[in-house]
Automatic annotation (TrEMBL):
<dbReference type="GO" id="GO:0016810">
    <property type="term" value="F:hydrolase activity, acting on carbon-nitrogen (but not peptide) bonds"/>
</dbReference>
<dbReference type="InterPro" id="IPR006680">
    <property type="entry name" value="Amidohydro-rel"/>
</dbReference>
<feature type="domain" description="Amidohydrolase-related">
    <location>
        <begin position="97"/>
        <end position="261"/>
    </location>
</feature>
<dbReference type="InterPro" id="IPR051781">
    <property type="entry name" value="Metallo-dep_Hydrolase"/>
</dbReference>
<protein>
    <submittedName>
        <fullName>Amidohydrolase family protein</fullName>
    </submittedName>
</protein>
<dbReference type="InterPro" id="IPR032466">
    <property type="entry name" value="Metal_Hydrolase"/>
</dbReference>
<keyword id="KW-0732">Signal</keyword>
<feature type="signal peptide">
    <location>
        <begin position="1"/>
        <end position="26"/>
    </location>
</feature>
<dbReference type="Pfam" id="PF01979">
    <property type="entry name" value="Amidohydro_1"/>
</dbReference>
<dbReference type="InterPro" id="IPR011059">
    <property type="entry name" value="Metal-dep_hydrolase_composite"/>
</dbReference>
Length: 367
C-alpha cells in the first residue's frame, strides 16, 4: 500500500512531472522548465489533515498524517497517533484527498487531425502527457502506437526529467492489415511481416503489442509467438477474429470488451471483419449469463485472457449520456473542440435509432 500511494504523491502533491523520479534510487536532474510544475520537494514532508483512499477498496480515512522522506512514504496514520518528525515541512491539506497514481491501460498519444482524407492522427506529445498527469494518471500503456518512435522518445525524455509526463510503457505500432484507420499505419502483408514487425519493435524498446481489426489469424499467431518468445504480451482490439479464436491463438488481453466481439454473428467469414452494425445486432438478443456469451467468458478465463475496460470511451457513444465538462473543452485546441462537439451532436441527433444505450448496458453486465 505504501508503494501504491507514492506515485500520486509525486504527481499531485510533490512534483507532477514523473512518478518514476520518486521510485528511482537516483532521481534525474530536472530540466529548469520543469521546476514550474513542482509544488513541494522538501526532503522531509508531512501532509496533514488529508483524506486517504488507499486503492485497496478500504473506506476512505479522514484526518490522516502522511510523512514523506526523500520521496518515499515514511509513515501514515491518524493525526493523533502519527508523529511529525522534527524538521519536516508541514503542508496542511485539509479538504484534499490523496489517492494512488492511476495506471492507464489504454492511453494513446494521438488525436485525429481535422480535415482529410487521408485520415491523419498526429502525436500530441506536449499536451497528452500533461493531461494524463493532471487527471491523476501516473503510468500508462500506449496500447497501439501510430508514431512509435515519438512515443519512445517521449518516454526517454520523461524518464530523464526533461519533460513532464507519466511513466510510459510503449506498445508497438498497431498490428493491422489492409483497411488501417490512419495513413501513418503500416499494413501487414503476411505472417512473416507480423513476426518481423514485432521483433523489430521489441529491439527499438516496445514492451507490448496490439493486434487490430483487420489482422488475419495467421498474422496474429505469428505476432503472439514472436512476442511471447521474448516474454512480452499481445493485446487486441479485434474484429476479423473472435475472442475465442484469439484466445486459442495465444492472445493475452482483449481491449474494449464484449461489444467488439464479432464471433456471435451467424455466418461470419473467418479472418474477415464483418459490418459492425450487423455484429451488434447479433449480439444484442444474447444473454450475458448464459449461452454463447457465457461459454466465451469461460474460454477466456480458462486461458487467463484479460479484458481491458474502456467504458468511458463507449459512454461517449451513448446519446446524451456523458456529461459535457467545461474543463474538457478548455483543454482542447479550437479545431478539436469543434470536431468533438460536432460528433456529440451527431450522436445525439441519431438517438432514436442508436443501438448504444442497449449495447452499453450489455457491456456493463459483461464487465
Ligand atoms: Zn485504442
Amino acid at each position: 500500500m505504501r508503494k501504491g500511494l507514492l506515485p500520486v504523491l509525486c504527481s499531485l502533491v510533490l512534483a507532477p512531472w514523473s512518478a518514476s523520479r520518486c521510485r528511482a534510487q537516483a532521481a534525474p536532474k530536472l530540466a529548469p522548465e520543469l521546476r514550474a510544475f513542482v509544488k513541494e520537494d522538501a526532503p522531509l514532508l508531512a501532509l496533514t489533515h488529508v483524506r486517504i483512499i488507499d486503492g485497496t477498496g478500504a473506506a476512505p480515512r479522514g484526518d490522516q498524517t502522511l510523512v514523506i522522506q526523500e520521496g518515499r512514504i515514511a509513515s501514515l496514520g491518524d493525526r493523533t497517533s502519527t508523529k511529525i518528525p522534527e524538521g519536516a515541512k508541514v503542508v496542511d491539506l485539509s479538504g484534499r484527498t490523496v489517492i494512488p497514481g492511476l495506471v492507464g491501460m489504454h492511453d494513446h498519444m494521438y488525436y485525429p487531425s481535422p480535415g482529410g482524407p487521408p485520415p491523419l492522427y498526429p502525436e500530441h506529445a506536449a499536451s497528452f502527457p500533461r493531461l494524463y498527469l493532471a487527471g491523476g494518471v501516473t503510468s500508462i500503456r500506449t496500447t497501439g502506437s501510430i508514431e512509435p518512435y515519438a512515443d519512445l522518445e517521449l518516454k526517454h525524455d520523461i524518464d530523464d526529467g526533461k519533460m513532464a509526463g507519466p511513466k510510459i510503457h510503449v506498445t508497438g505500432p498497431y498490428l493491422e492489415g489492409p483497411g488501417a484507420f490512419a495513413l501513418e499505419m503500416h499494413q501487414l502483408k503476411d505472417a512473416e511481416d507480423a513476426r518481423r514487425t514485432v521483433e523489430f519493435w521489441i529491439a527499438q524498446g516496445a514492451t507490448s503489442f496490439k493486434a487490430y481489426q483487420n489482422i488475419t489469424p495467421e498474422e496474429l499467431g505469428a505476432a503472439v509467438e514472436a512476442a511471447h518468445a521474448q516474454g512480452l504480451k499481445v493485446t487486441g482490439h479485434l474484429c476479423s477474429i473472435g475472442f475465442r479464436e484469439a484466445a486459442s491463438l495465444g492472445i493475452d488481453d482483449l481491449e474494449h470488451g464484449l461489444v467488439v466481439d464479432t464471433e456471435f454473428l451467424p455466418g461470419k467469414k473467418p479472418g474477415l471483419c464483418p459490418n459492425p452494425a450487423e455484429a451488434d445486432k447479433a449480439l444484442l438478443p444474447l444473454e450475458v449469463a448464459s449461452g454463447p456469451i457465457h461459454d466465451m467468458i469461460r474460454a477466456l478465463v480458462a486461458r487467463h485472457v484479460a479484458i481491458t475496460s474502456t467504458l468511458p470511451v463507449f459512454e461517449t457513444l451513448v446519446p446524451n449520456r456523458a456529461p459535457l465538462d467545461g474543463r474538457v473543452l478548455d483543454a482542447m485546441l479550437p479545431e478539436a473542440r469543434i470536431s468533438y462537439l460536432r460528433r456529440r451532436a451527431l450522436i445525439s441527433d441519431g438517438a432514436a435509432k442508436s443501438d448504444w444505450p442497449a449495447l452499453f448496458k450489455k457491456e456493463l453486465e459483461f464487465e
